[in-house]
Amino acid sequence: MADFYFTDRKYNQLGIASTDELTSSSVIAIDDIGGQEGDYQSVDGGYRSYSATLHFSPDQSAQVEEMAKVGNFVLFNGRAGESVWTTILSSEHDPLAGTNTFVAEDAS
Predict the structure, then answer these.
(1) Any residues with CB less than 8 A from the CB of 2 and at least 6 apart, and which?
(2) What residues are paired with 23 via a beta bridge?
(3) Alpha helices of 39-94 — where are they, by DSSP H?
(4) Would you tell me which of 16, 19, 55, 104 could form a disulfide with 29, CB atoms 3.0–4.6 Å apart?
(5) CA 14, 18, 21, 23 torsion-angle sign
(6) Which one, of 84, 76, 95, lies nearest residue 30 by Cα?
């Protein structure tokens, strides 16, 4: 299980998404994080870029849309246990499908 913390530009926490199965309406699930297709690291450029998809219930749509706004931050632990701080570069919200797909990048 991994948790992803979403904050605005003033570091106010907006919500948390988890890689756990969607077991209740209070959990916002996240998938497609990392892996060969989802995680790209550039040694020359010194950054990591990834896309992820949030899954939510209809009553969570407004919260997820706010969490995944362009410019917001996402904090999580990487595969090696390191803290990763990223900025959302693009976001596509689909309330009918209950998904929000975003692209984020860090500058480590």
Answers:
(1) 18, 19, 33, 76, 77
(2) none
(3) 61-67
(4) 55
(5) negative
(6) 76
